[in-house]
Design goal:
Layout lengths: L1 H31 L6 H17 L4 H24 L7 H23 L14 E4 L2 E4 H23 L1 H11 L1 H6 L4 H27 L8 H12 L4 H21 L13 H12 L14
Antiparallel strand pairs: 1-2
Helix pairs in contact: 1-5, 1-6, 1-8, 1-9, 1-10, 2-3, 2-4, 2-8, 3-8, 5-6, 9-10, 9-11
Amino acid sequence: MHYFLTILISGLLAGLMYAMVAIGFVLIYKASGVFNFAQGSLVLFAALAFVTLSEHGAPFWLAFALAAALMVLAAVLIERLVLRPLADRSPLTLFMATLGLSFVIEGLAQLLMGTDVHQLDLGIDDVPTSLLGLDLSQFDLFASGVAVAMVALLSVIFDRTRMGISLRGVADDPLAAQSIGIRLPVIWRIVWSVSGIVALVAGLLWGARQGVQFSLTMVVLKAMPVLIIGGFSSIAGAIAGGLLVGASESIADIYLGPLLAGGAVSNWFAYMLAVGFLLVRPSGLFGDRTIERV
């Protein structure tokens, strides 16, 4: 039982790392109804910007502030150059636009900051520590604390502030929201800015674990089953989906992996779980069900 609990809690902590990336998708989807395929590229670009500034002598707080400002600037440019001209197009068109945008961002990152692998040290060692009799990773505990704090902050912003109410109005009915004076371009800039800062935090956590390199863009693939399970329109769903994916991956890898010829199952088990949810509950645990008039 001690070993099982250690595996379970380690998986839950890892799942919060997945949820950090998924939250960026949820924010964009809630504001525009579009799956932002460029989120993984934003994670890479933000982490590269931070580590490049740090390597040139900037202290942590200054590098973080400048990288966050860069992500806000990127949000303004994306809204002005990509979203505004395509505002009246179909969600599929906007999705294809974000797909192309991901390649543009990756190309800019390579042009401006190179393709070298950068080591990122946040001052938290990935070593085991004893907590309630369980051996858990110090870095996983730190990353989980950051994720919980960010979710709490976002929940307050989007549930208790005027901007959050405007966001929910745009998500429910963009035309009605505009008719009462809510400016859609402003909402888009704000949401993309917040999503960019979330990408920065996620990029720092993932970069500290596996290095800041172009493979960070593949983190988007880990967010897919999290979004399907939790629901595309719910921050709470992103957390629940991340916890479920992280825990099930860890348990399956230990108990199911040895029974299969390939050994490790964590690379594909989450996708099988997501397929099961698509068959049983396509909207996810906390997603809004689609209602159509017939």
